[in-house]
Amino acid sequence: MNSEIKVYEKKPEDFFPKVEVAATYVSLNGKLLLLELAPKKQEAGAWGVPAGKLEVDEMPVKGAQRELFEETGIDKDIEDFQSLGALYIRKPDLDYTYHLFSLNLNTQYPVCLSPEHSSYKWVSPAEARNLPLMNGANQALDVYYDRHED
Q1: What is the pTM of this model?
Q2: 6-147 classified as CATH 3.40.140.10
Q3: How many other C-beta atoms lie within 10 A of the C-beta of residue 5?
Q4: Rounded distance, CA 16 to CA 38, Å?
Q5: CA distances from 44 to 53, 116, 122, 143, 145 (A)
Q6: Is 150 helix (H, G, I), strand (E, B) or coil?
Q7: How far apart are CA 40 and CA 101, in angstroms?
Q8: Residue 91 Ramachandran class (φ > 0 left, ψ -120 to 50 alpha, else beta)
Q9: What does the pLDDT read at residue 4?
Q10: For the chain, what are the domain ranges?
């Protein structure tokens, strides 16, 4: 874990988010979809779930749905997304709220990557831990596995 990033399950009193992010943890047959960041991206080569910043006045679940489609081509109804709450992320120059959603698939969809990503994998929890994950992703995975239902 990068010591410059802190992940909180409870919102700290001195927390003033400048950004909100929505992330979707997509599972199929016990495996999780992870995307590898493209070479020109910050944290290039690191793995994470489909996620991105919310647009102005966008509801978190709509942002999760939009980002999933933009990054993977997977288009699912908003009712299929289950909220897992939020985490509060602190970087040296930025506080942001990280909304977690789970999406359980019962059939495989084709994954069409956006230019932001160079590769994807369906991985078990153990396989996920052996990949170079984005900063804060291990803590977020812990929360996902603790809160989601199959």
Answers
A1: 0.93
A2: no
A3: 16
A4: 30
A5: 18, 9, 19, 24, 25
A6: coil
A7: 27
A8: beta
A9: 84
A10: 6-147
* pLDDT tier, 2 (very low <50, low <70, confident <90, very high otherwise): very low
Report the distance separating Cα 107 and Cα 103, nearest Å. 12
> Residue 74 and residue 122: Cα distance in Å, rounded?
14
Give the whole-angstrom CA distance, residue 122 versus residue 70.
18
SS3 of 80-147: the string is HCEEEEEEEEEECCEEEEEEEEEEEECCCCCCCCCCCEEEEEEECHHHHHCCCECCCHHHHHHHHHHH
How far apart CA 117 and CA 52 sit, in angstroms, is 13
Hey, which residues does 68 pair with through a beta bridge? none
Contact 48, 134 (CB under 8 A): yes
CA atoms within 13 A on the CB side of 28: 13
Model confidence pLDDT, tens digit, residues 15-50: 999 999 999 999 999 999 999 999 988 888 999 999
Q: How many CB atoms lie under 10 A from the CB of residue 62?
A: 15
Alpha-carbon distances, residue 118 vs 37, 40, 63, 109, 142 (angstroms): 6, 10, 22, 18, 25
